[in-house]
Specification:
The chain is an alpha+beta fold and 239 residues long. Helix content is 27%, strand content 26%. The strands form 4 sheets. A 3-stranded antiparallel β-sheet has the order 1-2-3, with helices on both faces. A 3-stranded antiparallel β-sheet has the order 8-10-9, with no helix packed on it. Strand 2 and strand 3 form a beta hairpin.
């Protein structure tokens, strides 16, 4: 577990908190706060390890926020803490790697407005990271295993947006289902009421003065359109 800095649009500073599983690279918990204290950190640990899911060991740095109360919570959960050496962040590589991914793939592309905005972004990235993003250490699979889609799933490859459009994933779909999804058949639009009311009355319009009406027995008559010059349009009326 580790904390990381999140700058905001108002030149404020938020602190993100992340807990990562070494076994499958899964982000177990991800949250943000403007006031990191002992009282805020202790419930975060309980939320990260609900029920009997607590690991045997937890790697952390020597931040002052891990006070006696935080260490007592770890001991109550049955976790043995493994602190890294002073000023040696490379001794906590899994957490540092995830923090770097969060910065490169999310925070470097958005402007965080406030704490609620940052929390929404981080929760969406956590879902993407665990269920969709591939990892070389996992054989190009996600922490939550993804099924391989062969040609039998469809000939069409579609693009799906992730993390509010910052990332994309691709899936196979059938041609018919895709065409119906993208171009649903719409009912024919009815003609406007003013046109329906003129049907059968021999009324037609033209744009140039002096154009003969297409219907027989119709005499062109020039009219002045409101807001335009005289003779800019004409209408033919039956005699």
């Amino acid at each position: 577990m580790d904390f990381f800095v999140i700058p905001t649009a108002t030149f404020g500073v938020l602190l993100g908190f992340v807990v990562v599983s070494h076994r499958d690279r899964r982000i177990l918990h991800l949250n943000v706060t403007a006031h990191p204290t002992e009282e805020w950190t202790k419930p975060q640990l309980r939320e990260a390890f609900p029920w009997a899911s607590a690991p045997r060991y937890l790697h952390r740095d020597r931040d002052k926020i891990y006070s006696e109360g935080v260490r007592a919570t770890l001991k109550y959960l049955g976790i043995r803490e493994v602190p890294s050496a002073a000023r040696c962040p490379w001794q906590n590589p899994y957490a540092e790697r995830v923090i770097g991914s969060i910065r490169r793939e999310l925070l470097d592309h958005v402007v965080v407005l406030n704490e609620a905005h940052a929390r929404r972004l981080l929760r969406e990235y956590q879902r993407y990271y665990n269920a969709i993003r591939t990892h070389l250490s996992l054989g190009k699979d996600a922490p939550e295993t993804r099924g391989v889609q062969g040609p039998e799933h469809g000939a069409k490859v579609i693009e799906l947006r992730e993390v509010f459009g910052l990332h994309h994933r691709y899936e196979r779909r059938g041609v018919e289902s895709r065409s119906l999804q993208q171009h649903p058949r719409r009912p024919a639009r009815a003609a406007p009421a003013y046109l329906r009311s003129q049907e059968g009355r021999g009324v037609s319009t033209c744009r140039q003065r002096g154009v003969e009406a297409s219907a027989p027995g119709v005499i062109p008559t020039s009219i002045k359109r409101k807001g335009g010059p005289s003779g800019s349009s004409c209408a033919s009326l039956t005699s």
